[in-house]
């Protein structure tokens, strides 16, 4: 009688003296897509700590970096959903600026309650996202074109509608959005962590998250499997808008007002964080944790250049180079994996 054969896959699964369970767990860790990004973030942190130990590797500076990337991470989290679904929103920067001006208007000119202003900003952002998503999915217009047009519209509304940006303070609103918990940790960090944890759970543990990945990976196959891909994409646009409204509210509680020119161009930072974090430009691959690491790398680059005495004009060069390297790495990894 022929003896049953043992495949290489079964040997690896069972473990051998050379490839035991411990080594297999280690191999799985190295195969995790975010491992390389995490290694890069740690490497950059260590390098800057060695280069500027008295200024970079301090509690105040670390908290400052966390505060700086908090709003970027919130915005980039929404964009992560959209990228994974195979779409993009170029209007996020202009939306961010307009909603921040709107929150200022509601709080300081119209004297709205803080408990009403933030939900209103989130709802307004969700509404803008709905329009972007509806035009994209209903009329099958590329999201690049739709959101590029929306960028101009939102930018124009900000310039025409608000001549003098309102500035002021709302103690209750400031405490909730940008106060300090336990006397030390800024609230922006807690908002960021809450968004990252909830979004990570939604993407990795819910049916909707599975549908987002399936839609971006192969839209036609997802449709054949019964997934309503237009609705999935529409909801991703709404998530982007809602998180933009949240970030805009936190911003006003932090800085108490912004100029009319704030926002446009910020979409590049958001896209940089998502791309550096390993999310595929063509959809189907990515994670919120990776985006968080991408935002952290972006924040460390900005702070590191300042501490190293580099000119401020060199920051876009550094970020652009990192984006190109991240995309090259992503393409190389995908080719080796046969994706």
Structure characterization notes:
With 339 residues, the protein is mostly helical. The two termini are 41 Å apart. It has helices spanning 8-14, 21-31, 33-51, 59-84, 92-109, 114-138, 143-161, 171-178, 187-205, 207-217, 219-224, 229-255, 266-276, 288-307, 315-337, and strands at residues 180-181, 185-186. Helix 4 (59-84) packs parallel to helix 9 (187-205), helix 4 packs antiparallel against helix 12 (229-255) and helix 6 packs antiparallel against helix 7 (143-161). The protein is built from 15 helices and two strands. The protein has a single domain (59-337), classed as ABC transporter involved in vitamin B12 uptake, BtuC (Orthogonal Bundle), CATH 1.10.3470. The chain has a two-stranded antiparallel sheet.
Mean pLDDT: 87
Choose one word for the global shape. globular
Helical percentage: over 70%
Enumerate the spans where pLDDT stays under 50 for 5 or more consecutive residues: 1-19, 25-31
Element order: H for helix, E for strand: HHHHHHHHEEHHHHHHH
- In which order are the strands of the major sheet placed? 1-2
Radius of gyration: 22 Å
Reported by name, the CATH topology is ABC transporter involved in vitamin B12 uptake, BtuC
Q: Summed up, what is this model?
A:
The protein has 339 residues and is an all-alpha fold. It has helices at residues 8-14, 21-31, 33-51, 59-84, 92-109, 114-138, 143-161, 171-178, 187-205, 207-217, 219-224, 229-255, 266-276, 288-307, 315-337, and strands spanning 180-181, 185-186.
Per-chain topology:
Elements: H1 8-14, H2 21-31, H3 33-51, H4 59-84, H5 92-109, H6 114-138, H7 143-161, H8 171-178, E1 180-181, E2 185-186, H9 187-205, H10 207-217, H11 219-224, H12 229-255, H13 266-276, H14 288-307, H15 315-337
Helix pairs in contact: 3-14, 4-9, 4-10, 4-12, 4-13, 4-14, 5-6, 5-7, 5-12, 5-13, 6-7, 6-12, 8-12, 9-10, 10-12, 13-14, 13-15
């Amino acid at each position: 009688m022929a003896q049953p054969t043992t495949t290489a896959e079964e040997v690896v699964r069972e473990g051998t003296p050379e490839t035991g369970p411990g080594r297999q767990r280690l191999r799985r860790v190295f195969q995790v897509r975010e491992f390389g990004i995490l290694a890069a973030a740690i490497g950059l942190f260590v390098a800057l700590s060695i280069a500027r130990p008295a200024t970079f590797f301090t509690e105040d500076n670390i908290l400052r970096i966390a505060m700086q990337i908090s709003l970027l991470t919130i915005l980039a989290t929404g964009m992560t959903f959209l990228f994974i679904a195979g779409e993009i929103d170029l209007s996020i920067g202009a939306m961010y600026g307009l909603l921040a001006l709107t929150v200022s208007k509601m709080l300081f000119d119209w004297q709205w309650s803080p408990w009403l202003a933030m939900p209103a900003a989130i709802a307004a952002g969700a509404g803008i996202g709905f329009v972007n998503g509806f035009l994209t999915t209903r009329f099958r217009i590329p999201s690049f074109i739709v959101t590029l047009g929306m960028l101009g519209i939102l930018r124009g509304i900000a310039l025409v509608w608000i001549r003098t940006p309102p500035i002021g303070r709302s103690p209750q609103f400031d405490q909730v959005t940008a106060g300090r918990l336990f006397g030390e940790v800024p609230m922006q960090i807690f908002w960021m962590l809450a968004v990252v944890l909830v979004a990570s759970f939604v993407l990795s543990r819910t049916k909707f998250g599975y549908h987002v990945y399936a839609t971006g990976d192969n839209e036609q196959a997802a449709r054949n499997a019964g997934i309503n891909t237009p609705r999935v994409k529409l909801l991703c646009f709404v998530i982007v808008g809602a998180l933009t409204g949240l970030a805009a509210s936190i911003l006003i509680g932090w800085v108490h007002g912004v100029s009319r020119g704030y926002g446009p161009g910020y979409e590049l930072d958001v896209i940089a964080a998502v791309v550096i974090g390993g999310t595929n430009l063509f959809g189907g691959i990515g994670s919120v944790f990776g985006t968080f690491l991408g935002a952290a790398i972006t924040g460390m680059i900005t702070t590191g250049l300042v501490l190293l005495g580099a000119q401020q004009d060199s920051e876009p060069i550094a970020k652009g180079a990192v984006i190109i390297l991240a995309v090259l790495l992503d393409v190389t990894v995908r080719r080796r994996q046969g994706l």
